[in-house]
Design brief:
By secondary structure, the chain is mainly alpha-helical. The chain has one domain. It contains 3 helices and no strands. The termini are close together.
Amino acid sequence: MNNYMLPVDDKFVEEIAKSIAKSRILYEAGIIIEELSLNSPAMHNVVEILIDDVFENTWNDINENNQCRKDMYRLDAKAAIAAINLKLLTLKE
């Protein structure tokens, strides 16, 4: 039986939350690129580089609105970790 579980410590949750937030932003940017008919690997790379910098600054911002968003992403991260852990618990070998 598999006894491995993902950790739920604050540091791991924060990393997952950041990943979820950034993935959503990149997904939405991809939709906009496609709608503007600018869809190319080079354009996606440029957008990702631009978003990386803006994302890190926004994530580290301490204003109340950003804190509320980060709290929501942390809840999403905890839910994702719990779902994965439940699946790991119920796996049959």
